[in-house]
Recover the amino acids of this structure.
DNA sequence: TGACAGTATCGAATATTTCGATGATACGAT
DNA sequence: ATCGTATCATCGAAATATTCGATACTGTCA
C-alpha cells in the first residue's frame, strides 16, 4: 500500500477524554454527563478542555444552557461513535467465552422447532456454548444487532439489507380459530373474515397479503388486535379471541387435537418465512459458522 | 428499538489497556510492543494482565518466544482494530480545521487540469481549506484511504467497490513518442509497436487494451518499462525512451509544439478515465460535498 | 438587578500508570 | 546436563493523570 499509514502501532491518545467527550456530545451538557458518569462536573470539564487543547480544535460552543457541538465536534462524534460501537461489539463477543454462539430466537420457534433438536446439536458439537436471546421479531430492526446476538431467526420476507439472510423453508399459512369462535362466527368464504377479529403480532402485513389473495383489503373498520408475541397469540386464539394466521406446522398439534380448527381446511402459500439472519460486517467465528450450517442442514432435511 | 442496548452513555473501560493489547497482538511480543510504545516492558505486561483479569478472558498464550493470541484475543483484535481505525479517521478529519477538504491527486492531473482552475474555486468558495495529497494512482488500493484524504482523483476503469465513483469525462488516448524516436523506429501500423519500448506506469492494462483493439497482444518478449509517475513518463517519452499512451488533452501542448508526435495522427477511445472517488462509509462534510460538486460541474462544462 | 443554570479553574487528595530491578520459565547450543 | 539468552511476571517506589470540592465566572430570563 504505497503511501499508506501504518495504523496499528500508534495509539490514540486521550481516548478516555474522547469517551467523556462522547457522553457530553450525547447529552449536550457537562453537568448531566458528569451525573451519568458518576464523576464530578469539574472532572468532565477537565477532560473536554484537555481534549480541545490537545487537538487544538473547538469541539463545543459553550452556551448558558449547556454545550452546542461545533461542526468539528459532531464530525468527531460521528466517527468515534462508530469506532466505540465496534470495540464494544468485540468485547461483548469475547465475554461469552470460546465457542460461544448467541442466537436471537423467536420464542415460538425456539419451543416448537429448536428445543427438540438441541440434544442432537450438542451431540454433534459438544464444544458449542449456546446462549439463547429472545426477541419479538425485532432483531433485524435493532440499531446494534451484533451486540445482541451473533445470529438470529427472523420471520418475514427476508429483505433486510444489513444482514446475510438464509430462508429456511417455504411456508404455508393456516387460518385458525377456536371451535367455539367458529360456531359464533361462521366462516365459509373469505369475506366472512371481515366480521372477525384478526389477531396478529407486530404488523398486519400477513393479513393484508392473505386478504389481497382473495381480492379483499383491510379497512379501518376491521376489528383487529395486536398481541405481544406468538405464544400469547396462540393462547388467545385458543381462548376464542379471534382468528389467526400461523405457519401451518406450528399449529399442527392443536389442529389434530381439536383445540383449534381451520375453517377452510386448506393452507395458503405465503411470501413470509423464517430466516437465519447474520449481521453483516462482523466475521462469524468458527462456532457461529457451524451453528449456521447446522440449522440450515436441519431445515433442508426436514419434511414439515 | 425494542431490546436494544443504549450504547452511547457507557464508556469502554480499560480502553488504554486495549490499545496496548492491540500493539502486542500486532507484534506478538511484549518486549517489542514496549519498545514500540516507548515504555517499559513491565508496563505493557501490567496492561495485558489487567485487561485479562478485568475481562476474565485469556487473550494470549505465553510462549518462550513471545505471545500467541488465543481465539478470543484475535477476535477482540479484529473488532478493536476496526474501531480504532474509525476513531483515528475522525481525529484525522477534524485535525484539518473546519472547511477542510483533503484531495488525493494525481500529479499530472493536478498540474495540467486543476491548478489553472484553483483560483476560480477559491473565488466561489473562499472558506474552503484545500489540502492536496499526491498519490500515484494508489488511492483506491490503500487499506485506509479515508485517513489519507476525503476524496481523490483516480485513473482507471471505475470499478472500485468500496468507493463512490464519478467518471469525469470520456477519454481518448493518444499514442505518442519523440520525433527522434519515431525516426529511429518507424511506426506505420500497429504491429510496428511490437518492436518499440512501451512506457507505462502502474500496470500494462492500457497497452493491453490498445493492442487488443488491433488484434495484438503483449508477450514476454515485448520491451516495456514501468515508470514512477506520469510526469516522469512524459519527460521520458520526450527524451526518446519509447512510446506512451496519454489522455489526448494532456499532451496537446507537446503535440502542438512538436516535442512529441503522434505517429498515427488519430486518437483512440478507451475504457479508462479520470474518476472522482470518495471512500464509502464516511459521511462527507459540507465542504467536501461542495468540492465534489464543483469538480463535477467544472468537468461537465469543459470541452477538451 | 438578582436568581438560576450552566461551565471553568484551583489546589489538594486519590488513583493509575510507569519504572527499574529482580524472578521465573522455556528453549537451544555446547 | 548446564549455561546463556530470550521471553513474560511481579514487586515496591516514583511519576503522572484524574478526581474532588469549593469557588469563580458567564449568560439568560424574569
Amino acid at each position: 500500500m504505497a503511501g499508506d499509514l501504518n495504523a496499528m502501532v500508534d495509539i490514540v491518545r486521550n481516548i478516555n477524554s474522547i469517551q467523556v467527550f462522547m457522553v457530553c456530545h450525547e447529552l449536550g451538557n457537562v453537568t448531566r454527563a458528569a451525573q451519568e458518569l458518576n464523576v464530578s462536573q469539574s472532572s468532565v470539564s477537565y477532560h473536554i478542555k484537555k481534549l480541545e487543547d490537545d487537538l487544538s480544535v473547538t469541539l463545543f460552543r459553550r452556551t448558558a444552557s449547556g454545550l452546542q457541538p461545533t461542526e468539528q465536534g459532531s464530525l468527531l462524534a460521528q466517527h468515534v461513535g462508530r469506532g466505540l460501537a465496534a470495540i464494544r461489539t468485540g468485547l461483548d463477543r469475547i465475554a461469552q467465552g470460546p465457542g460461544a454462539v448467541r442466537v436471537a430466537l423467536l420464542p415460538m420457534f425456539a419451543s416448537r422447532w429448536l428445543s427438540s433438536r438441541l440434544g442432537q446439536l450438542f451431540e454433534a458439537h459438544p464444544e458449542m456454548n449456546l446462549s439463547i436471546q429472545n426477541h419479538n421479531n425485532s432483531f433485524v430492526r435493532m440499531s446494534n444487532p451484533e451486540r445482541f446476538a451473533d445470529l438470529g431467526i427472523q420471520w418475514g420476507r427476508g429483505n433486510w439489507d444489513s444482514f446475510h439472510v438464509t430462508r429456511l423453508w417455504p411456508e404455508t399459512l393456516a387460518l385458525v380459530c377456536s371451535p367455539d369462535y367458529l360456531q359464533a362466527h361462521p366462516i365459509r368464504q373469505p369475506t366472512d373474515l371481515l366480521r372477525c377479529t384478526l389477531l396478529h403480532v407486530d404488523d398486519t402485513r400477513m393479513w393484508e397479503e392473505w386478504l389481497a389473495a382473495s381480492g379483499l383489503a383491510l379497512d379501518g373498520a376491521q376489528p383487529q388486535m395486536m398481541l405481544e408475541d406468538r405464544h400469547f397469540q396462540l393462547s388467545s386464539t385458543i381462548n376464542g379471541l379471534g382468528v389467526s394466521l400461523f405457519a401451518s406446522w406450528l399449529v399442527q398439534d392443536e389442529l389434530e387435537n381439536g383445540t383449534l380448527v381451520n375453517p377452510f381446511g386448506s393452507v395458503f402459500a405465503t411470501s413470509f418465512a423464517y430466516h437465519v439472519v447474520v449481521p453483516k460486517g462482523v466475521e462469524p467465528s468458527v462456532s457461529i459458522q457451524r451453528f449456521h450450517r447446522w440449522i440450515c442442514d436441519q431445515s433442508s432435511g426436514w419434511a414439515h
User: Anything to note?
Assistant: The first helix of chain B runs from residue 15 to 27. Residues 16, 39-40, 42-43, 46-47, 62-65 of chain B lie near DNA strand C (CB under 10 Å from a C1'). Chain B touches chain A through 62 residues (CB under 8 Å). The mean pLDDT of chain B is 89.
